[in-house]
Amino acid sequence: RYGGSTYYQAVDFPIRLDPTFVPQLGAVTLQDNRIDAIELRSGTWTTGMHLLNTGHVYWIDGDMTVAPGATLTIDPVVIIKFDDDVNDLRVHGTLIADAAGDAPIVFTSYRDDLRGGDTNNDGATTPGQGDWGGIHLNYASASADSLLNNVVVTYGSSTTYGSLGDAIRLDGRANPTINNLQMHDNDVNGLQLETGTYNTNLT
Question: Is 87 within 8 Å of 133 (Cβ atoms)?
Fold first, then answer.
């Protein structure tokens, strides 16, 4: 409780996960902090990571990159919020976001108080199109292992310089399986398939 200082060099979240050290979290209680969320620190994550349903929001405060050979696994019901219009999730490895129909995985804006509550305790806020960047399944993700099943992507696809510009972008050699994807209130509600030669099937 009462964590998340804004002082210089202080950790401004009650729990911060660093790309170089990834513990496995179970159920945690966060209350009356500056931001009641678990921060996923920006940078390149080179080790496998499993985002368990802890009952609290995960928060990305910069570009988060999943390195080649690394896997990011996200449990059902997990909510991930992005706090800036130039923040993207860039996957060069593998993304597994597999959920049941009544327990979707959500990628959304930090202003979205309807999902995960008022995470940053700033009172009621209204999210908007382009509040954050998007998800990039990069050409280095040449594996067909990535899976997005029952995923909600909303309030993304910022067109600000430095942002991805698409809610979800697929490069030529990325070959994910995508089922039951819900996209709404993004600046662009669609999958961006980059131009180029596709040598594998896209499911």
Answer: yes
